[in-house]
Amino acid sequence: MSKSISEQRVAVIGELNVDLIATGLNTPPTLGQEILATGFQMTLGSASAIFACGAAKLDHEITFLGCVGRDEFGRFCLDALREAGVSTGKVIEDASLKTGVTISLSTPNDRALVTFPGAISAFGVEQVPLAALEGHSHLHLTSYFLQHRLRPSFAQIMSEARLQGLTTSFDPNSDPYSEWNDGIWEVLGQTDVLFLNESEALQLTRLDEIDDALKFLGGKLQCVVIKLGPRGAVAMRHDEVVFAHGFEVETVDTTGAGDSFAAGFMHGFLEGQNLGICLEFGNACGALSTLKAGGTANQPTRKQLNDFLQAHHDDE
């Protein structure tokens, strides 16, 4: 039975930054050479914010806890969150910091990212009012390796959330140093739903095959989801393993597609849907998000998601 929206309030604790996106690149950038883009725009960035906006557009009540500089980029982030329906009353504006910036150079198949962390790396657990989690049913954390001050407290925050009765999800994103230190396993011990892409799953487990990585992680966590890009996604919950094909779309920009996927998957999870439906929701939200530049510009509403899925089912 699906749960009511009132039972699906989600807290997101994480980073905020703007994305400066150049699209239409024919080749990846190379040092010492100039390449041309066919489009450029500034959008709300950060994995946490993209997830929050995606879940809000699917009618979930979202509270965001984070930090920005008291500057133009910070105001842009807050305005974009509010426009998407995300509550920003718990976001700190710090005049001593600069809001983070990510430069995204996007080809039709992938993108290169350059990030200035700014306030992202200065945000610490002492700025997180854990009492604000009261009344929520779920907590989502991401960008583990970018949030330097908050990172040692991820497990503590998630443990406190679970003590308050919340479920938790975690998408660490990539490690810029490719080290995947052992501290992350303490966080995984407090995680109900883990999201990884293919390369992250292999690096984390130090295994060579996705099936082996999924089985290994599935033996340690309640639910593991591995995103496979346009091919779809595979998940394991308890002993059940399900694969769901992706949707073919005319991709403009893949920025944030994985975070939109996570929002769609958690939409199904919080409704009490089965694993296959959760994956289908995730794949659809991820695919739709790639149709415009930026992570949030084409995230679907609940109706748009249902219409998209219905159209694809009718074509089968």
Can you describe what's shown?
α1 packs across α8 (257-271), α6 (198-205) crosses α7 and α8 (257-271) runs antiparallel to α9. The radius of gyration is 18 Å and the shape is globular. The strands form 2 sheets. A 9-stranded mixed sheet has the order 5-4-1-8-9-10-11-12-13, sandwiched between helices. A 4-stranded mixed sheet has the order 3-2-6-7. It has a single domain, classed as UDP-N-acetylmuramoyl-L-alanine:D-glutamate ligase, CATH 3.40.1190.20. By secondary structure, it is α/β, with parallel strands linked by helices. The chain has 10 helices and 13 strands. The longest helix has 15 residues, at 257-271. The two termini are 26 Å apart.
- Spatially, the strands of the biggest sheet line up as 5-4-1-8-9-10-11-12-13
Q: Sum up the overall morphology in one term.
A: globular
Look at the structure and name the CATH superfamily: Ribokinase
Helix content: 25-40%
